[in-house]
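Q: Could you predict the 3D structure of AI-2E family transporter?
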Amino acid sequence: MRRHPLPEEKIDPATWIFLMYFAILIIMYMVSSTIIGAVILGLYLSMIIMVPARLLMKLKFIGRGAAVAISAVLVFTALSVTIIMIFPILIDEASNLFSTLSAGPVSWESILEGLPDIFSDLAGNTQALEIIQEIGTRVLSAFSSFGMSLLNDIVTSLPGMLTSVVIFIIASAYLTAMIPVLKKNLWRFFPKSTRKKSIKFVETYYSTIKSFIGGQVIIAGAVGLIIGIGFTIAGIPYAVFFGFLSFITNFIPYFGVIITSIPALFLGLTHYGLMGLIRVGFVLILANQIESWVLQPKVQGDRTELNWFIILVGILLFGSLFGIIGILFAIPIMVFIKEYWQTYVQEAFNRK
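A: Sure. Here are the predicted structure tokens for AI-2E family transporter:
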């Protein structure tokens, strides 16, 4: 019997089904942000794992299972090494900073004398020195207060973080293995009348997100290289580690450099004082500007077909609504909205 297409005046039921699934996800996140957030992060990591796995699968002697296993081991090892190394560095440098601050008032006159002539001339100007001393003292006080607050927040949230980490690891491993199964059973989530179109929509969206993740790997690698080389030239300790840390954290678009800046500024200040802050700040700002104005617009703009300004605004908006999960998934959410609008909303508008 011949199947008739949907009536001209009838809206595709998938229009409401996708909205329903999206609303359920938001509600679940609002009810239990720790668990759902960890699961979402696990999904994100599973897609990152698939980037090197797909490269390995191009080798004829490596099957999918082996490629995924090797890739997962590499990714989890990279994350583990980063976490294991970052905390001792933070604690040591924070201790050095607080010891320096507690030893007595900072001699801003001697600091200025060690700078280039354009700045060292200010050391003999009493009025300028007083202004610099007041500003510098406030900056150091705010910086040390922020460091103490950050450490306190980490200690306070440690139990919840451990729960999230366990769920995150389990979810990423499970979802990496189950993606082929989910693809085979995708038809179960949509009514028969619109199943073919709905599955095609999901496959197109998933393909775009895969491309986005691949692009983010390129951007993260470039930013990590810039920071690693920049810190080496600037003489900042642990330059290679900070380049690696930037690569890991830069899977959060635009904000990876900001995350790296916290321990890097500690090191710059404790080892080289004000000049250390200037060196670190220059390298970080350079990396951030190259990412914002060159890498993100060119790489992700072409892959997601989203304007760079829309990407930046979306990251800030979803970050303010959902925190780090919103920042991480801002681009996938915006891609979904774009695809959904073009496929379903625009079609509904065009109906008679």
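Q: Anything worth pointing out?
A: The chain has a mean pLDDT of 80.
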